[in-house]
């Protein structure tokens, strides 16, 4: 009697998964497929597996050589807010002031450049894969603020309690895409002025359109928006009873 064999059904190929970080300058989802192993021990089509001994040898060589990459990497581009613009000729003069350290949410502690696809999933905040700030954007904003205060009057040290103090809390600092081709840099900050007690507090929101729908456009919009927000804050501070 001839033998019969039952062929094992090949398991269905896994669905591609979205949500990988975008390696290019434009935010978009990249589909990735995870390597899986079939029940018979072989890899699914389209995946590649090194023999165990060879894989161990490659890993050891990488360690000995100080690290290596099996795939080419994309260079990282870093940004700051650009050169300071200085005070406008008609800007209000400020008395001697001190500036407290600017604070922000924990997700702004690093140097990631964040964007949000408002037209697709407004609740999702994502970092660019290859574009970064040179330092935390909160620190960049703090440096810019101190330069602006100094250009309008005198910036004193924080222990000088006779001078009024300005405290900024960064609430939002991101590039928001309203469509695939249109975005804006959005900055929302809360300004507090105090001395022995509270003198004034106000929230400022700036939405600066971006010239291009990519990371570079977002950086430019956020830099311009930062200067606009700081100018508005200092104009408001000049109206308060600081003396």
UniProtKB/TrEMBL annotation:
Keyword match Lipoprotein: yes
ABC-type transport auxiliary lipoprotein component domain sequence ranges: 79-233
UniProt source species: Cupriavidus basilensis
Superkingdom of source: Bacteria
Pfam families for the chain: ABC_trans_aux
Low complexity: compositionally biased ranges: 1-21
Stretches for region Disordered: 1-45
Gene3D superfamilies per record: ABC-type transport auxiliary lipoprotein component
InterPro entries: ABC_trans_aux
Record protein name field: Putative lipoprotein
Keywords: Lipoprotein
